[in-house]
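Bench notes, afternoon.
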Amino acid sequence: MNNIRNFCIIAHIDHGKSTLADRLLEFTKTISIKEKKNQLLDSLEIERERGITIKSHPIQMEYKYKNKKYLLNLIDTPGHVDFTYEVSRSISACEGALLIIDATKSIQSQTISNLELALASNLTIIPIINKIDLPYSNIELVKLEIIELLNCQKNDILCTSAKKGIGIKSIIDSIIKKIPSPKGDINLPLQAIIFDSIYNPFRGVQTYFRIKNGMLKTGQKIKFMSTNIVYNVEEIGIFKLKNLKQKIIHAGNVGYLIAGIKNPSEIKVGDTLTDAINPAKNPIEGFEEVKPMLFAGFFPLKKEKYEEFRFSLEKLSLNDSSLSFTPETSYALGSGFRCGFLGLLHMEIIKERLEREYNIDVIPTIPNVHYKVFLKNNLNFLINNPSDFPEKNKLEKIEEPYIRANIITIPQFIGKIIQLCIEKRGIIMNQTYITKTRVELIFEFPFSEIIFDFYDQLKTISKGYASFDYSHLEYRKSDIVKIEIIINGKIVDAFSTLVHRTNSFLIGKKICYNLSKIIPKHQFEIPIQASIGKKIIYRETIKSLRKNVISKCYGGDFTRKRKLLEKQKKGKKKMKTFGKVEIPKSAFLSILKSSLKKNKYLEK
């Protein structure tokens, strides 16, 4: 155990974590020249396309230092705020962290957020300034800011260019010298924490673990402490570029486990693994279960794929434990699931993974957050689906979730950022200068106000010089209403949404306007209305297709033409009563996208 080092890489998005991981693997000769490629640990196609890390990726390196062989277990982590939970899981399996800071962008909000997670778990921090080769890098200024942030010495800060491979040896030497070896007792009963899982279609669930005490052997009978289900170990191994089988793994090490687990719901991330015959007395503590904050309905485009869709969600939730889902039925879309996400990017990623990895096209509904409803009969419960919204005469009050937002920017954009935040119902709590050139603004927001286009607007008005991070606070009383969309006299539940009363007219107008452009014309006039209760707040009308019924009348009295026009009018009225409006499936996705975008014409 003295020769094992478990560490992760944490940073703000796009500060060079994956590139540094590539250089570490190359320097330790974990990969060959033929295997070299950018973002080597990013195994998902979508990660490579977007240039971001979505999943944590473990890998083991071997390195000789002062004639001793060391095992270095690296976990590359995501940087986006929506995937903070992935970072917290990685931290639970480590003793140290490399904190990467871009020499051109300096300290960002997610830098501080991830640092606080690491410090809360008592990890040893190694600060590293990356991208020192770029012409606009300001190394000395960034060093001063890091010293203020960490209260460290100037000599503790390492400088590197991950792209050009500068300073990689000093980083590996620091990992061995500064990060402590894992603590544990090989003679105690097996005690291992599960920090991730994936689904193997041929061998079942593949579980990732970190052993705290004892050892794990092939053929051993094991038990998951939260479910008390017993399995026989078929295969264990360590993480290389291709997983390497082992007969035994000791305390302090990280590895994977295959035990013929076919049901993904039996495995929980954060559960403790122990020996079935000689079990540990207590599970490993300190692992928090994630709570999704954004919810949307997901419905399969093809109804016959419902069961396949359900199993795909089960496999995805195994690989991404922050995803939750429950069955839901919609009048317009049929059977589907109400899914919970950490944020809008997380929702987009899940949708794309379902389409790419499982070949299932899905239709999402407009996202909502969790609301806490209090009824007059003293009952209270959480809702995230507009269909669960109670009637007005039964409602006592409703509360919505608030967040604490940290925005770091440069002084010249403070005014515009404060104005944007106030428009989003934000309350400024504090304004402090972290350094002479960096200002931290702390706001309290309703979560529903920032899940859509807030981040894009923030980046636009600050010209990219602002970073954003948030943490959840509590629920507060709010004036929330349910907007229902009525098409040709029938409520289409898939377009219903819960919003604050001050935003209700604009949201209703936006949905109706977008629907009027998407739904094709029919033989009859189609009214599209937005309502709150029985009150119509906005209306758009799709004009009917017109057929020139008097074109065949070349002469004769005008009464003949009037008779044909009256007959057409009666026919259209009857058709409007009994006719069915066909809403194209693509309209649901188009409404979601267009509802998130700003429309200057509609906001006048």
